[in-house]
C-alpha cells in the first residue's frame, strides 16, 4: 500500500531537519567532547582530502534543502510521481547520516562503516528510482531533484572509502604487506573508475564534478609529502575533467543554461 504523499514529504522534512541538528550538535561539542573533524584527524588516512574539501557539505545541505522544499511544491502537482518514487529512501538517508555522526564522534567506527554503506545504498536507490539524468526533464527537475542526489552520491562514494580506511587504521590493519601509499593510489583509481561510469553511463556530471573536487583536495594535501599520491590524484582529476567537459559539450543542448534560454523551466 502506497504511503500518502503528504506523509512522505512531512517525514522527509522532519528527518532532514533532525539530521541538520545532529550535524550542528556534533560540531558544537554537544554530542561528545570530540567533533567529526577531531575523530577524522585521530584516525587519519592518506585517502582523506585537505580539510577545505569538507566545505562541500554546505553545498549538499543547501541542495537537499531545495529537494525537501520542492517536495512540498509537488504536493500540488506531481505528474512524474517523484514523491512516491522517492519513497522512504530519503528518510532513511537522513537517519543513516545522523546516526553515522553520532557513532563517529563516539568512535564507533565499525558501526560507522555499516551506516555509511546504508547511506550509500539509499542514494543509489534514489538514483535508480528517480531515473537521475536519463530523461530530458525541465530545469526545475534538474535543480531540485537531480542535483541534490547526484552531488550527495558523488561525495558519499569518496566518504565511504575514507570511512573504511579510518576503520582499518583504528583496527591496526597492516595492509596485507602493501604500503598505505600504494593502497591510497589503488583507492583513487577505483574511485576514478566509479566516477567515470557515472559520467559516461548515467550522465551524472555533477557526481563526476565532486570526484574532481575530491581528487584535487587529495593532491593538495599530499603535494609536498607524497608525490606518488599527489600525481595520481591530479591525473585522476584531469581525466575526469576532460571526460566531463567532453560529455557536457556533446550534450550541450540539454544543459540547464540552454534549457532556460528555451524557456524549459
Structure, described:
The protein has 265 residues and is mainly α. The chain has helices at residues 5-27, 36-42, 56-74, 82-86, 89-105, 109-129, 139-170, 180-202, 205-222, 227-250, 256-261.
Quick rundown:
This protein has eleven helices and no strands.
How does the helix and strand content classify structurally? mainly alpha
Number of alpha- plus pi-helical segments: 11
Radius of gyration: 19 Å
Mean pLDDT: 94
Q: Name the overall outline.
A: globular
**Number of beta-strand segments:** 0
Oligomeric status: single chain
Percent helix, as a range, is: over 70%
Summary tags:
74% helix; globular; 265 residues; 11 helices; mainly alpha
Note the topology.
Layout: H1 5-27, H2 36-42, H3 56-74, H4 82-86, H5 89-105, H6 109-129, H7 139-170, H8 180-202, H9 205-222, H10 227-250, H11 256-261
Helix pairs in contact: 1-3, 1-5, 3-7, 5-6, 6-7, 7-8, 7-9, 8-9, 8-10, 9-10
Amino acid at each position: 500500500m502506497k504511503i500518502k504523499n503528504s506523509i512522505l514529504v512531512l517525514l522527509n522534512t522532519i528527518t532532514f531537519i533532525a539530521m541538520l541538528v545532529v550535524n550542528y550538535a556534533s560540531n558544537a561539542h554537544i554530542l561528545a567532547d570530540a567533533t567529526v573533524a577531531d575523530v577524522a584527524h585521530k584516525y587519519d588516512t592518506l585517502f582523506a582530502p585537505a580539510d577545505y574539501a569538507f566545505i562541500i557539505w554546505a553545498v549538499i545541505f543547501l541542495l537537499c534543502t531545495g529537494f525537501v522544499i520542492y517536495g512540498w511544491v509537488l504536493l500540488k502537482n506531481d505528474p512524474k510521481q517523484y514523491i512516491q518514487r522517492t519513497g522512504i529512501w530519503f528518510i532513511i538517508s537522513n537517519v543513516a547520516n545522523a546516526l553515522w555522526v553520532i557513532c563517529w564522534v563516539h568512535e564507533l567506527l565499525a558501526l560507522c562503516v555499516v551506516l555509511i554503506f546504508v547511506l550509500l545504498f539509499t542514494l543509489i536507490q534514489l538514483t535508480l528510482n528517480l531515473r537521475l539524468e536519463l530523461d530530458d526533464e525541465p530545469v526545475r527537475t534538474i535543480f531540485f531533484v537531480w542535483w541534490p542526489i547526484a552531488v550527495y552520491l558523488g561525495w558519499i562514494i569518496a566518504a565511504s572509502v575514507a570511512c573504511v580506511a579510518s576503520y582499518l587504521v583504528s583496527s591496526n590493519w597492516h595492509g596485507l604487506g602493501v604500503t598505505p601509499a600504494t593502497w591510497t593510489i589503488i583507492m583513487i583509481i577505483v574511485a576514478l573508475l566509479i566516477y567515470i561510469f557515472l559520467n559516461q553511463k548515467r550522465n551524472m556530471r555533477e557526481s563526476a564534478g565532486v570526484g574532481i573536487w575530491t581528487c584535487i583536495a587529495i593532491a593538495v594535501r599530499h603535494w609536498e609529502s607524497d608525490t606518488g599520491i599527489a600525481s595520481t590524484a591530479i591525473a585522476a582529476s584531469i581525466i575526469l575533467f576532460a571526460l566531463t567537459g567532453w560529455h557536457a559539450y556533446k550534450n550541450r543542448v540539454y544543459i540547464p543554461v540552454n534549457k532556460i534560454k528555451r524557456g524549459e523551466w
